[in-house]
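FAQ

Q: What does a record look like?
A: Structure on top, sequence underneath. For example:
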C-alpha cells in the first residue's frame, strides 16, 4: 500500500538514458512500453526525452521532467560500467549521498557464483542507492531498479534491457504507481487493415469514428499508416472503465464490419499471428515459395512461438533454375510468361504445397529494384499467389518505394492472401 502522505500521480515524464540512443543504430522502444503501462493505470504521459551518458545531461533531464510531471520514469544507465550514471544523477538531483545496499551486494555475488564466476569489483556500483531511495529487485538481471518518493515528485529508475525492464515495470505499477494514480485509466483497442490505402480506409471509417468522438463516453480514433498496413487506434479515457471498454468494443465492431474483409484484427494480433491462429484452429499446414522476398515470409511466420505446429517450411527460389528444380515450375512456363507472372506464381505455390506437404501455400515473385524493371513490368511489380483447400487466388501488385519497402509490402500482401484463402474471402 502506498504511503498516504505521498501525493497522487496524474502525469508522467519518461527519460531514456544511453548515448547509443542518440545514434542511427539504436531506437528507444522502452518509452512505448512505459507509456502503455502508465496509460492503463490512468497516469498520462506529458513529456519524454532521450539523453546521452553524461551526468550533467541526465541530471538536467530529471530536473526538466520533475518540473513538468508528478512521476519521472528513467530507463537505462544502471549497469556496472563508468558510463552508467543514472544512480549518480538521481543523487545529484536530490542533493543526497549514496549508500551501498548489502542485500544487493550479496545478491550480485550469488548471481555470479551460480555461473561459476567471481564477481568483478565494478559490479558493486550496481548496489549503490541514493539516500532516501530504495532499490527494486531485478530477478532477471544484475541491475536493481531505484525508487525515490518525495512530496514533490516520484522518480523510478529501471534497467535498459526490455526483458528486465518490463517485468519490473509491471510489478512497480501494480504495487506502487497505480494505487497512487489520480487519473482515469485508458482503454485502448487496435484494428488492423491490410491491402487498402490510408485515404481509402479513412473514407470509410471517418463517418463512423467521428460519431464516437461525440459519444458519452467519447472514443477517440487515430489512424497510423505502415507499409501495406493501416492501423486504427481506438481509445477512451473515463472514470468508469467498464463503460469505456463497452464504448471501445462497440466502435471496434462497427469499424470492423465496415472495413471487412480487409480488417483482419480487432484484438491487436499482427498478421502472422492472425494467420497462425487460423491455421492452428483448422489444423492446417502452410508453406511458402519466395523469390523477391528472399525468405522474409518464412521469417515472419516463424517469429511466432509455436509456429512449428502449422508452418511446414519455405523455399527461396531466386534463380529460375531453382524455381524449376525445387518447385517444379515448368521451364516452358517461365519462357512463355517470364518469372514475374501470374502463371508462374501459381505454379510456385502449387509446387511448394506439393513438395513440402502443406495444405495451403503462398508464392511471391517480383521486381523489388532498384534495377530489373521494364516498361511492361516496372520496379515494384510483384505477383502473389495463394493456393490450397480446393481454391486459389493470384494477383499482380504495383508497389511503390525502395527495395526494402517493396519487399515489406510484398510480405504483408502475401500473408493477407493466405488469410483470405483460408477464410475464402
Amino acid at each position: 500500500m502506498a504511503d498516504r502522505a505521498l501525493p497522487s500521480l496524474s502525469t508522467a515524464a519518461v527519460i531514456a538514458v544511453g548515448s547509443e540512443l542518440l545514434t542511427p543504430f539504436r531506437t528507444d522502444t522502452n518509452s512505448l512500453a512505459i507509456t502503455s503501462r502508465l496509460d492503463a493505470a490512468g497516469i498520462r504521459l506529458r513529456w519524454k526525452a532521450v539523453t546521452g551518458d553524461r551526468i550533467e545531461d541526465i541530471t538536467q533531464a530529471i530536473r526538466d521532467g520533475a518540473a513538468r510531471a508528478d512521476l519521472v520514469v528513467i530507463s537505462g544507465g544502471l549497469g556496472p560500467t563508468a558510463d552508467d550514471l543514472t544512480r549518480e544523477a538521481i543523487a545529484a538531483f536530490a542533493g543526497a549521498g549514496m549508500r551501498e545496499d548489502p542485500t544487493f551486494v550479496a545478491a550480485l555475488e550469488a548471481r555470479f557464483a551460480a555461473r561459476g564466476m567471481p564477481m568483478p569489483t565494478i559490479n558493486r556500483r550496481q548496489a549503490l542507492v541514493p539516500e532516501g531511495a530504495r532499490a527494486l529487485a531485478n530477478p532477471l538481471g544484475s541491475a536493481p531498479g531505484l525508487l525515490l518518493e518525495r512530496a514533490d515528485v516520484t522518480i523510478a529508475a529501471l534497467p535498459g534491457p526490455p526483458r528486465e525492464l518490463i517485468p519490473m515495470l509491471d510489478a512497480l505499477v501494480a504495487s506502487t504507481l497505480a494505487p497512487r494514480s489520480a487519473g482515469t485509466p485508458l482503454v485502448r483497442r487496435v484494428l488492423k487493415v491490410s491491402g487498402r490505402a490510408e485515404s481509402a480506409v479513412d473514407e470509410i471509417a471517418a463517418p463512423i469514428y467521428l460519431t464516437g468522438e461525440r459519444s458519452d463516453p467519447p472514443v477517440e480514433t487515430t489512424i497510423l499508416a505502415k507499409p501495406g498496413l493501416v492501423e486504427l487506434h481506438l481509445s477512451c479515457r473515463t472514470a468508469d472503465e467498464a463503460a469505456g471498454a463497452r464504448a471501445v468494443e462497440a466502435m471496434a465492431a462497427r469499424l470492423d464490419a465496415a472495413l471487412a474483409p480487409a480488417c483482419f484484427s480487432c484484438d491487436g494480433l499482427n498478421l502472422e499471428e492472425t494467420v497462425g491462429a487460423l491455421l492452428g484452429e483448422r489444423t492446417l499446414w502452410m508453406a511458402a515459395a519466395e523469390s523477391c522476398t528472399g525468405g522474409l515470409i518464412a521469417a515472419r511466420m516463424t517469429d511466432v512461438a509455436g509456429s512449428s505446429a502449422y508452418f511446414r517450411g519455405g523455399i527461396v527460389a531466386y534463380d529460375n533454375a531453382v524455381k524449376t528444380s525445387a518447385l517444379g515450375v515448368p521451364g516452358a512456363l517461365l519462357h512463355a510468361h517470364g518469372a514475374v507472372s501470374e502463371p508462374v506464381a501459381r505454379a510456385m505455390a502449387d509446387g511448394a504445397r506439393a513438395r513440402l506437404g502443406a495444405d495451403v501455400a503462398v508464392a511471391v515473385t517480383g521486381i523489388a529494384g532498384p534495377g530489373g524493371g521494364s516498361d511492361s513490368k516496372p520496379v515494384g511489380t510483384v505477383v502473389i499467389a495463394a493456393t490450397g483447400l480446393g481454391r486459389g487466388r493470384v494477383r499482380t501488385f504495383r508497389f511503390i518505394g525502395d527495395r526494402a519497402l517493396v519487399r515489406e509490402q510484398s510480405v504483408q500482401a502475401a500473408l493477407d492472401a493466405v488469410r483470405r484463402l483460408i477464410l475464402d474471402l
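Q: Is there anything notable about this one?
A: The longest helix spans residues 403-423.
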